[in-house]
Amino acid sequence: MRIVLLNTGTELLAGDVHDTHLAFIAREIFALGLRIEERRTVGDGDAIGDTLKELFPRADIIFVTGGLGPTSDDITRDVTADLLGLKLDENAELLASLKERLRVRGIKWVESIARQAQVPEGAKVLPNENGSAPGLYLKANPKVPSPHIFLLPGPPRELQPMFRAHAMPVLHSIVKGPPRVERRFYKVAVMGESVIEEKIGKKILSIPGLELGYCARPGEVDVRIIGDPKALERGDEIVRAELGDVIFTADDRSLEEVLVKLLTDEKATLATAESCTGGLLANRITNVPGSSKVLLAGYVCYANAAKIDVLGVSPELIEKHGAVSEEVARAMAAGARKRAVSTYALSTTGIAGPDGGSKEKSVGTVYVAIADENEISVRKLFFPSDRETFKQLVAQVAFEMLRRKLI
Q1: What pLDDT is attached to residue 71?
Q2: First vs last Cα of the chain: how many Å apart?
Q3: Among 35, 108, 111, 143, which residue's beta carbon has the most beta carbons within 10 A?
């Protein structure tokens, strides 16, 4: 089946909003053996209708995102209904639900909000438990002709739960039989994609009908193999044999989610002592549900005085070796673990740049330490990059050091 994603909204083309829908929808529908073949992005206005009219004859399913709200630029439902020759009717149940939603939140009712209760004749309403605008599904109509059309809200926090709960069951009814291809997914931290390619590339590609792909981001590479179940099993054996425990997960979990699970299972606790990462380690850990069971404290000690006062780092140590040093990283980890009374502690100290480097310690130099009751291990690394990428790379190294210790 030919699947097309149409993102609408001038804010997307202006660069004000980053589109995340392609990645999400592509992952979800792959379980049904479906793959998006084309993605379009158009602004608000006539371009929506023109694009849909062009796509109708050559698409089997179209996902349209955005333009379902109450304002004058939200015209997706109107344009779609017009192209299909369908009348828009006000849905009394939706209207009552909208009014109740605003009443509970103490928001004044404005008549334009009622536009969100307009439903094209024959459309199936996809409830929105996280926002006001419902989604809509319109069945393929050979008389127009038109494909299956899903109208979905723009905000990801609304679209994603709606898609899983209400659009996926509809897709199951459209797609008959098991998927022809399947996918395996592996995540690897702190290893370049060229190194991974060297280990598995030729062996995987020697299996007929098996696709191999990578997606690299700071400190992490996603590896995917796609093919029929039999070929996939052979590929999986190769990937696991060659990469082994450098694979930190074979699902969609983040490295911090894996860490929280490992710490929870071990009934272990963690403290962080951060200088150059500025609290990123603690932030990522606390984004994970259940992290309160494992993270006891996070200390952001950017200034030397804070390292001394909060973590008990010796002023003489800083004077002798400098704040960015193995010795200070070691002392920070030990101080954080002692103060928090945690099982483990991670520390980071480095030069994010673009200023602050020297001949001895260039911009990008960083030390990462991990402490437990028996030892303190330190790694010196060099990440000459922009500040945000530098912080992400350092965080990945710190988390991977802890994961390796836990396994």
Answers
A1: 85
A2: 43
A3: 35
- Residues 224 and 213: beta-carbon distance below 8 Å: yes
User: By residue range, what is the domain housing residue 223?
Assistant: 182-249
The series of mean pLDDT values per 10 residues for the chain, 407 residues long, is 94 88 92 91 93 95 94 91 94 91 86 91 94 94 93 94 95 81 90 94 93 91 91 95 96 95 98 97 97 98 97 96 97 98 98 86 95 97 94 97 96
Is 261 in the same domain as 396? yes
Task: Pinpoint the alpha helices (H) of 221-325.
Answer: 229-243, 255-266, 280-286, 304-311, 315-321
- Residue 215 and residue 307 share a domain: no
Task: Assign residue 100 the CATH number of its domain.
Answer: 3.40.980.10
The predicted structure's pLDDT at residue 110 = 87
Instruction: Tell how strand 365-371 and strand 344-350 pair up.
Output: antiparallel
Domain count for the chain, please give it: 3
Q: What is the rounded CA–CA span in Å between residue 278 and residue 285?
A: 14
Report the amino acid identity of residue 201: G
The answer to whether 189 and 400 are in contact (CB under 8 A) is yes
CATH code: domain of residue 334: 3.90.950.20
Q: How far apart are CA 18 and CA 333, in angstroms?
A: 37
Copy the structure tokens of residue 221: 């590479």
The neighbour count for residue 40, using CB atoms within 10 Å, is 17
| Token output for 61 | 């399913």
Per-residue model confidence (pLDDT) at position 383? 94
Q: Number of C-alpha atoms within 13 angstroms, CB side, residue 90? A: 10
Q: What is the CA radius of gyration of the chain?
A: 26
Burial of 211 (0-12, 13-18, 19+ CB in 10 A): middle
- Looking at the structure, do residues 57 and 125 belong to the same domain, yes or no? yes
Q: Hey, what amino acid is at 117?
A: A
Tally of residues, the chain: 407
User: Are residues 163 and 208 located together in one domain of the fold?
Assistant: no
| 18, 150: one domain | yes
